[in-house]
Amino acid sequence: MKLLEATEKDIPLIQDLARRSWENAYADILSEEQMEYMLSEMYSETEIGNHLQNPDYHYYMIQDENTGSYEGFIGYQHHYEEKTTKLHRIYLVPESKGKGFGKIALQFLNDKVSENGDHRIILNVNKYNAARNFYESQGYEVYGEGIFDIGRGYVMDDYLMEFLIHK
Asked: What is the pTM of this model?
């Protein structure tokens, strides 16, 4: 597996991978209407383009070196809070889960966070998303909960998780 830094030319690929992973991960959690709304807001060309213009926000494509196929992506933002990087998104297509791509991507993130002087990684995960178990298996802990209004009467009901980088 390798991680390749994304550019504007990768926006359609990010959008496709997000849709494929969301249709699997959130099928039993979100209504189809909420999923469509969130994908259109969070993964619009404008939104991702704005992220890519921010020097602290990074997207990396997760590629299987054996097949050349893209298995997912990771998006994170250094210095989101003091000494803290926020993992905004990490998604894998369903057929690539369980192959170690997520673990490698999180280790890659740990290395990038250390290189940039942050000491903590935070993320939000839907309370009903099985990904929470994955994050806990990688050393993340729940430190809070939050309900976030995202518009059109929809909310995100999340656990707030953190991982502390030991220097």
From this structure: 0.96
